Structures are given as C-alpha cells and as structure tokens.
C-alpha cells in the first residue's frame, strides 16, 4: 500500500496557487461538506476551536474520500502534540506564532524521525494505515508539509531566517494576531501591518518557499493572490454559516 501524494505540497513547490477553507466548528459533518467544495486544502483548527485529537481524527476520516489536503493547526509548537497528531494522520501541520529560526528548527525536528529529528517511533498508526504503508517511516517527510505562522513583530523580523530552515514549506501570515500584536487590533489594513505582511511574503519568496494568508474577504484574497501569496484561505465554515444566516434573516426582516 502506498501513501497518497501530497498534491498541495507539490503544487506549491511549482508556484501554483492553492485555495483553502478554514474549519472551526468542530463538526465532522460540516468539514465533510466543506471538503466537497472543490477547494485544494482545508484547515482543521485545534487552536481557536473546540477541537481535540479525537474530533480532529473524525474530521480527517470524514474528508478522506475527497481530493483535498487536510491540514491541522495545533494549539502550540509542542513536540508531543506534533507526534500525536501526525500519528493520527495529520501530515500537514500549521504551527502558530513562530518567532525565530531556532524555534522553526525544533518544529521540523519534532516532525522527523531520528537521526534527523526527535519524533517518537511507532510501528503502526493511522498515518501509515496501521502498518500497511511500506517504508512509511523512511519516506514520511516526502508528503509532510509544515506551515509556520508569523503573527508578531519578532516573527516578521526573523521571517527570512525562518523561511531558510530546511523542512519549512510555508510561511503563513495570521492577520488578526499580527495586527493586534502591532497595535492595530481589527485593522490588518493599517499601513505598517501591510508592510509587515509584504515583508513576510518577500522572505518566503526569496527562500523559494510558499507564502500563505487567511483572507476571508474576497477583495483581500484577490489582492493577496495578485501580490504572490499562493496558499490562501478564502473562507471559513463559521463565517459562512454566521454571515449567511444573518443575511437570510435580515432579508426577511427588512421593512
């Protein structure tokens, strides 16, 4: 048995834009609906959402039949969590608030087996189809994708060094935290925040890595894609349900 190729990782390496959707509601059924939309990837959020390891596994199972790459955002850069979620089948991980190249190197090491890293070894788990994927352990990095979030001034200042770390695939801007940490809460469009976002994009491009961003507003997403971001989240289940239901009721309440 062979592991399914990570087509998103391959497409990003060729400079192709990959569109994603955010899954925050903790529902396998909702995530399954989102996976059938035709998006290239989706993000199961375990940082700011009511998800745990078992609910994430249920969502990974729910989207398994779709041609979409399921990424998982961990709550922190904890090697134990990296091991647990990777063993559970989350091969594309997003790690929040990465500030330095040394932190990035430690994250890469936590995702790799010795001698390159420190990921704990288990013969059979969901990631290798319970021992059925031949040579999984030797070839695991081939289909793994590490997406490191830049969310503060220190991370922006060190973005070039972070992007240069071997094993880092994507630098991902979190506009909400970045703008908040730069004194512009709810205002990612502020000039100094936009300059920071642009510098992260340049750092990723200079290192030959992909740059990503969360942009649920269509105009923002189109602008960021035009600028060169290639790993772009263009919507979220929570926002689609909330705004859609708001608009529907408002329509019937008018007048």
UniProtKB/TrEMBL annotation:
Entry keyword Metal-binding: yes
- Which residues does the UniProt record annotate as the domain HpcH/HpaI aldolase/citrate lyase? 18-242
Q: Which Gene3D superfamilies match?
A: Phosphoenolpyruvate-binding domains (3.20.20.60)
Q: Where are the transmembrane segments?
A: none
| One of the record's GO molecular function terms | aldehyde-lyase activity
What this protein catalyses is: D-glyceraldehyde + pyruvate = 2-dehydro-3-deoxy-L-galactonate
Pfam families named among the record's database cross-references: HpcH_HpaI (PF03328)
Concerning SUPFAM superfamilies, the annotation shows: Phosphoenolpyruvate/pyruvate domain (SSF51621)
Which superkingdom heads the taxonomic lineage of this protein's source?
Bacteria
Record keywords, A-Z: Lyase, Metal-binding, Pyruvate
Needed cofactors, names only, are:
a divalent metal cation
What Gene Ontology cellular component terms go with this record? cytoplasm
Protein family (similarity comment): Belongs to the HpcH/HpaI aldolase family.
Q: What is this protein called?
A: Hydroxypyruvate/pyruvate aldolase
Q: Which organism is it from?
A: Roseovarius spongiae
């Amino acid at each position: 048995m062979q592991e399914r190729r990570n087509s998103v990782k391959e497409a990003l390496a060729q400079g192709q834009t990959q569109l994603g959707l955010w899954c925050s509601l903790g529902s396998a059924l909702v995530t399954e609906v989102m996976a059938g939309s035709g998006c290239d990837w989706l993000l199961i959020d375990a940082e700011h959402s009511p998800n745990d390891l078992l609910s994430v596994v249920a969502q990974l199972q729910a989207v398994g039949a779709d041609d979409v790459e399921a990424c998982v955002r961990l709550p922190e850069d904890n090697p134990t969590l990296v091991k647990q979620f990777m063993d559970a089948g989350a091969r594309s991980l997003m790690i929040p608030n990465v500030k330095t190249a040394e932190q990035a190197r430690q994250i890469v090491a936590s995702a790799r087996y010795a001698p390159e890293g420190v990921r704990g070894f288990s013969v059979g788990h969901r990631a290798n189809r319970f021992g059925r994927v031949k040579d999984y352990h030797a070839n695991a990095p081939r289909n793994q994708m590490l997406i490191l979030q830049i969310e503060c001034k220190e991370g922006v200042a060190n973005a070039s060094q972070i992007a240069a770390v071997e094993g880092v695939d994507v630098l991902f801007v979190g506009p909400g935290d970045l703008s908040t940490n730069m004194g512009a809460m709810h205002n990612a469009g502020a000039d100094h925040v936009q300059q920071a976002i642009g510098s992260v994009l340049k750092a990723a491009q200079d290192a030959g890595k992909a740059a990503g961003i969360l942009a649920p507003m269509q105009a923002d997403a189109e602008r960021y894609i035009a600028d060169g971001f290639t790993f772009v989240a263009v919507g979220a289940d929570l926002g689609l349900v909330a705004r859609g239901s708001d608009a529907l009721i408002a329509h019937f309440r008018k007048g």
